[in-house]
Structures are given as C-alpha cells and as structure tokens.
Amino acid sequence: MKPGFRPETIKETMKINRENYPLYFLDHFEGRLSDEGRRELLVFLESHPDLRAEFEAFEMVGLEGADQVEFPGKDSLKKDLWAAAHGPAHAETEVAILSEDLFAPDDQGVLRVRPARVDTVLIAFTEGDLDKEQEEAARAFLSANPAYQKDLELLRAARLRPEPAATCPGKQALKRHPIGAFVRRYSHTAAAAAAAVLMAVIMWHFMPDHTTPEFTQDTPAGIDRELTEAVAEAPGLLQRSARAMTPIPPNQLPASSRPGIHLATTSSRLTSLQVDRQSADPGVPAAYADPGYETPALRPLLASQMHRVMPQTPVGATQRPQEPLRKRQEYYWLAYRDRADLFAEHADDPRTADRQDLTLAQLARNELTERTGLPIDQAEELLHTDASLLGRYARRGFGSINNLLGQPVVVDGETKSDGRTVTFAIGDFFEVSRK
Amino acid sequence: MTTAEYNQCVDRYADGVYRFILKNLRDDARAQDVVQDSFERLWLRHREVHVDKARAYLFSTAYHAMIDSLRKGKKEDLCDEVPMQTEGYQQEYSGLGEILEEGLSRLPSDQRAVIMLRDYEGYSYHEIGQITGLSESQVKVYIYRARLFLKKYIGSMDVVI
C-alpha cells in the first residue's frame, strides 16, 4: 500500500475499538500486527461478532500486489482551502476543476472526454473555456452519450438572465452638475448671471457678534475654534476673498431692509440662499415662517430621500465628528438629493417656482425636520432656543449644496481687524458679498 | 474622467451595480446605500479614474462595500446549511427564473457574486478577479462550483425542466 492511502497507523498505545478496528484488520492481513495486537484483535472479534464478515472481507486487501492498487479519483477527495473554510467538500475540488486532464487521446490520437471529468467538461463547454479541438471532442462525446444532453441543458438553463426591469432608485440623484461649465458658458453675458451663491455666512453664527448677542452667548466655544481651523486649512483664502465681489443684482435681493448677508443666485440650477442675520434672530420667530418650501407635496419626498441616507440622530446630539466644511468626504452621506431636481420634478406646482430662496434658519429647520421627523413647529422652537443646534443643522444642510456644486466645498474667509470672521466663500465660482 | 463622463457612468452602470448588490444583499435600502457609496467614491476619485476603468472600479468598490455590509450584518452563507431538496417540494414555483433565484440565494456569497458578475455583466474570469480581488483560478473554481450547484438544484426540480 502506498504511503498516504491510509490516514494513520496503529500506535503502540492504541487499543482496538469500534472506531479504529479497520486499521487492525488491515495490519493483520498485511502481517504487520504484533502478537499482542493479534491477540487483542481476536478478543475484539469474539466480543463483536457482527464485524466478523467485514474482517473476512479485508482479507482480499492483503493479497499480493494489493498495495499497487490506486483509488480512482483520489484527487477528488482532497480538500482545498475553500472547503476547509466553508465546510463540506463539493463534488469537484479546486484541484480537479483547474487540472487540464479533461481529455485524453485514444489509440488513434483522437481527443476523447475522460469519463470521470464529464461534469467539468460540460461546464467548460457551456462557459466557452474549451478550444476548438476540445469542443469537437465534447460534441462527439455528447453525440455518443445522449444521456448527458439533459445535463447540458440543465447547465445552460442554470445561467442567470439579466433583469433590465430592475433599475436603481434615485439614479438621477447620483449625478453631478457641471456648475463650472455652466458658469463659463454664461460668464460672457453677465458675471452676475453665472451663479453667485453667497453662502457661508452660516459660520457667522458661530462668531462673536455684538449685534446678535443672543447667539454669541449660546454658541459653544469649540465651534469658533473649528472655524478657525477650517480657515487656516485654506491657504490663500484672504487673497481670494479680497477679489472683487460679484454684486448681487438688486432684483435678486429680498425686500427686507434688515441688515444681513444675502445669498442669491440667478441660476435656476442652484438653490439660492438668503441668509439674513435678523431672520435667524430668536427674537423674530416669524422669520422661520416658510409658506412654501415645506409643502405637503414636497416634504414627504424630501423626507423619503433624506431619511434613508441620514442616520437618525437624536436632537441635540451628533454622531458625526466635527470637521471643517471643506472636508467634503466627511459630509458625503448627508444629502444625495439634488433639490433643484426636486423642484424641476414639481415645476408645475406654483409653490415650487416661488421657493428658490432659503434663509439660514429655514435650511437648518429643513434639515432638522427631515432628520428627526419632528413637526415643523417643534423644530422651529428647538432652533429658536438653541443657537448651536441651529448652526449644526444649517451646516448639515450644506451637504445639499455640495451636491449642487458638484465639487468639494472650500471654505474661504476674511477676518476683520477686530478678529471677527465676516465672510466665507464656497467653491471656485462663488463669492461672498456683504450687504 | 470629466463630470459629463461621470454622469454617463451613472446612466450606464448604476442599474447594473444596483442589481448586482441587491441580489447579493437582498436588502433594497442597503443595496442603494452601497450604490450611492460606490458612486460617491468614484466621484471623489473621478479625476484619477479613467472612464474606461470606471465600470470595473464601480463594481469593485461596490463588491467590497457589499462584503463589508454582509460582515456587518453578520449574514451567513446558507448553501451548506440548507439541505438541497430532492423530493416532495412544498414550494410552488412559477418558472425557471424563480428556481434559479432560489438556487442563487443558497450559494455562498463569494460564488453568488462571481457568477452574477459573469452572467449579468459578462465579465471574464480575469476581470472578475480584478473586481473581487480573487485569483483568476479561484474565480473559475467558484463559477464551476456554482454552475454545478445550480444545475443540480434546478435538475432536482425536474417538474420545471
């Protein structure tokens, strides 16, 4: 018997039992059992008469030349790494599948399918893995053995068919809008028409400001530090901020005469932002009133799009580390829905056309209601009493702006001599103007 | 890759990636998250990834995200745990497609993934290897095993064939 055929041999300390008796049977007929072992075997057989017939059957194994006999398909018993990791072995091991002994030439030199490898040959045939000669051999085999036709049909039937009906929901929201190209395209007609989104002033909420003591008192000191870091990470920011600011066309400005910084755009693709300092003032709760944006038609759509990608966060707590705005990758999950597309889809709604401006407070309120499902009035009340909450949710709302821009947000800023940061710019094509 | 090319990739590949992930995860919300995450990653690297490689990049990213999602969800392969039915089916199937679906769901996740890339997307062994990080040989082994399993599975339901 060749080494390796028998997985183990009798050890001196081993005692015969119903588990290991085949080893004793083999060694007995091969003359390798010691006298003591033979006596032990005889005693065992007397006490287990049901194994007598099996013992006698083993006698043939001890015939001369028996150790030259090889077990056919020995390779198929080998275990590969996958089988070891995943459990029971499959019919074809890795070694068998990858071996190239699927065919063998007959006496006339014609390639023939090895009978033991029919399954693999048929799979290779349907996968197109055979060369021309092998394919002919496979066809000849199938002609000569029509019983295997059904196997072939089953293999062909086992191929998956694409299901074009299944489409990705929200696919359009995955797209990015080439704002830069848009801006370049129309810049020759009017710089102002190129989309001057003035934003950022969001951060103004976090800065010391003697004109809005309510907010400055409530703003956590850490946010100021965070902003300072964000600005510090944007080299050259002062240069860019010093560029001539794009004036906001008068007709784009809100009628409000209250002091503040206004964000506006003439591009229908962009959600313009009007950030009015006083409108976010807790003393003016009416500023939160938004007659159109959160329409019954729009809100469920917004919510369905936003809730799925936004983990529910308890009000007043955040699971996301505070990061500077410019690190877009930290914000990518915040919003995937292009609000402009949403407006476009509901262009027939007269309220949609009127809702192209958002105050900072509205931005924050929208984010808060969408993330938490809170009623609007409760969300407004929370924002009314917690400036840091307003800042946090308004900033999250900028995730939507990231998508509109189609490029990472860059925070730019300018600091006045009194140390107060007054402006921020987002992106390469947008500048901040202070009214 | 330009923004326009990126958006073309969305049109061309979003459905395929979505189907691929959905079939594996069997969870629509998670599948959508994986797709969105994959495209987000592509976007973040769109200046480096050539448009010709975008499809493979997307599938590769989605595949690995799916594996992560499976691990997080502590999903277990059912292939070896669910005995193949050989007689007395109580389930009623309206056609081969449903039986294949059932058989597909019983494959180990790695076999299921490679055979879907093969059949749905028409990828070669080499391409599947690039997407999944498996060797070409291992891909071939998985596909052969999956074929054999599916063949036996649908063959055992000879009422359909």
Provide a descriptive summary of the structure in words:
The complex is a heterodimer of chains A (about 425) and B (about 160). By secondary structure, chain A is mainly alpha-helical. Chain A folds into three domains: about 70 residues, no CATH class; about 55 residues, no CATH class; about 250 residues, no CATH class. Chain A is built from 19 helices and six strands. In chain A, the strands form three sheets. Chain A has a two-stranded antiparallel ribbon with strand order 1-2. In chain A, β1 and β2 form a beta hairpin. In chain A, α17 packs across α19. The longest helix of chain A is centred in the last third of the chain and has 19 residues. Chain A is elongated, with a radius of gyration of 39 Å. Chain A starts with 20 loop residues before the first helix and ends in a 9-residue tail after the last strand. Chain B has two domains: about 70 residues, Rna Polymerase Sigma Factor, Chain: A; about 60 residues, Arc Repressor Mutant, subunit A (Orthogonal Bundle). Helix content of chain B is about 70%, strand content about 0%. Chain B is built from seven helices and no strands. In chain B, α4 packs across α7, α5 packs across α7 and α6 crosses α7. Chain B is globular, with a radius of gyration of 17 Å. In chain B, about 45% of the residues are buried. Chains A and B meet through α5, α6 and α8 of A and α1, α2, α4, α5 and α7 of B.
